Amino acid sequence: MSEDSGYNLSEEQILEALNSSGFIFEQRVSKRLEECGISNRTGVSYLDPDEGKSREIDIVGSFGIALDSAEGLTHIDLDLIIECKSTMQPHVVFVRPWGPGDMAPPFEVNFEKIDEATSKSAKKKKYSDSSVRPFHGSWMSFGLLSAWLPCRLDQIQRGVQLVRVERAAKKFVARNALFEMCMPPVKAMLDRRSRASGDAIYFPACVVAGPIYTTSIKGPDEPILNKTKFCCVQFENSSSWAADSNGIHTVDLVSYDHIAEWVDHVKNVSISIAKKTLQGLEEYSSAVSRWRSPEDAAKAKRMRDQTVESDHELTEKDGD
Q1: Which superkingdom (predicted)?
Q2: d(Cα 280, Cα 113) in Å, to the nearest integer?
Q3: Rg for the chain (alpha carbons), in Å?
Q4: What span, in angstroms and rounded, lies between the C-alpha atoms of 320 and 95?
Q5: 141 pLDDT exceeds 50?
Q6: What percent of the chain has pLDDT over 90?
Q7: Least confident residue range of 49-63, 113-127, 175-189
Q8: 110, pLDDT greater than 70
Q9: Is 223 helix (H, G, I), strand (E, B) or coil?
Q10: What is the rounded CA–CA span in Å between residue 268 and residue 276?
């Protein structure tokens, strides 16, 4: 029997193999998320739209947001779709200021209530359904732009290029790492969003073990590197399967040592979005009531009351 067979491997060799594969780092990230109150699963499958094959995203984390509204308690899920990279090689993100042309929201949403409300409005105004998809226009018409702008733009830098610095022969080189690192969480997120039921906010992200630096080109001088805890990378995807989200995606790049700060950030952003959404829905309902006939309003109230009664009955049965 060969000395390199599995039966003769030392514990050091086994651990070396595990560490080089990234499985240990993945579990460490999972544990850190749990410590931050994010329940999560590792090795979650998704359908790769480029090849039509099932693949795995490293971690999917979830956190529930419950808010009081005029219609009662509303629940919105925060989903973190995470790719893990255990390499200690530094990553450098070229950043630029947020501008008027970068107003695609730095997250993705699936709001059934918004979709339902605006679709009804579209039929009333004879608009096409495609013009009021949640990601295309509803989030802006419901004031979500003002919800995420202050808490997102003031706290996170917008990256436009992502490179990894690694050794090649006797020198160090910078290689483009954007699609290698960012496409898996985007694909997993879109697959998850296509099968979702209920209201949710999605943050695709990549957690790295090594340091993260940001830099920008502002003049003839050499760029200055700034070490950062986390930032985001925004890029355009021309694949046909990305058309439903305008082909513009934003992926957060997070240092393992600063996962807790990043989780606090996305929680605060999501709560702000959720509150603004409820406010927009209530304002929308108020506006609708001004053109809806008394008969339609009475019918809507009866349907809403029946839904509430059904929910109470289900809750009582679950309690039994």
Answers
A1: Bacteria
A2: 11
A3: 23
A4: 55
A5: no
A6: 32
A7: 113-127
A8: no
A9: coil
A10: 12
